[in-house]
Amino acid sequence: MRRLWSPKGKAREEGIDVTAADPSNLVGYCGLYCNACGIRQEKIKTAVNNLRDIIAHYGFDKMMSEFVQWEPSFKHYNEFDEVMDGLVQLFGDCPGCLQGGGDPNCKVRSCAKQKGYRTCAECNEAGGCEPLAPYRKGYKGLTPALQCIRENGIRSYAEGMQKKVDNGYSYVDESK
Ligand code: SF4
Ligand code: SF4
């Protein structure tokens, strides 16, 4: 099965250790900060594990055939359980953009790499860029992030983002 957000990732294309002290290594080509991503923060894995713990605590998983008389959807419990496994398999963790995490077919990453840019902040076409547009739309902070990288440099931007993450920030909260 193809894994998009694999903790193992594909080959370490850039030879960069994302665990190194420099948080710039966690800035994706598009300008998103990988440590602020809910997938890398293991939010889905944690939520699935929490739900499973609660279900197991009450022993509901062993009583679904009995409960189905009150709640017909419970006949699909085994499929639901498989879907939870699938969510963790595909979206349980991520090694980060520079380590091959995220969408393996990401057009932004391939375009920026082809042009020799570290991030799209270096690109004159960023304003009207089609591949970047969905990320600008999905993450309101992306346009100011690219501006910040241009004005202050990637290291300063990454350090600012890491401070926010240390205080509990996640992109998941931004889209609420
Ligand atoms: S995979 Fe694409 S969208 Fe995700 S952080 Fe990297 S460049 Fe951005
Ligand atoms: S055209 Fe420029 S802004 Fe758009 S993805 Fe490529 S490098 Fe990034």
**Low-confidence spans: pLDDT under 50, at least 5 residues?**
1-14
Bulk shape:
elongated
The description of the largest β-sheet is: none
Mean pLDDT: 90
Q: What percent of the residues sit in helical stretches (DSSP H or I)? A: 40-55%
Write down the secondary-structure element order.
Answer: HHHHHHHH
Individual helix count? 8
Total domain count: 2
Q: List ligands, each type once.
A: iron/sulfur cluster
| Computed CA radius of gyration, to the nearest angstrom | 19 Å
Secondary-structure class: mainly alpha
Q: How many strand elements? A: 0
Strand content: under 5%
Distance between the termini: 31 Å
In words, what does this structure look like?
The protein is mainly α and 176 residues long. The chain has two domains: 83 residues, no CATH class; 50 residues. The chain is built from eight helices and no strands. Helix 6 packs across helix 7. The N terminus is likely disordered. It binds iron/sulfur cluster (2 copies). The site of one iron/sulfur cluster has 12 residues, from helix 4. One iron/sulfur cluster (SF4) binds next to helix 4.
Topology:
Layout: H1 43-58, H2 64-67, H3 77-91, H4 107-115, H5 133-138, H6 142-152, H7 154-166, H8 171-174
Helix pairs in contact: 6-7
Bound molecules: iron/sulfur cluster (2 copies).
One iron/sulfur cluster is lined by residues 108, 111-112, 115, 117, 120, 123, 125-126, 129, 131-132.
List descriptors.
176 residues, mainly alpha, 2 domains, 8 helices, 44% helix, binds iron/sulfur cluster
Summarize the structure.
With 176 residues, the protein is mainly α.
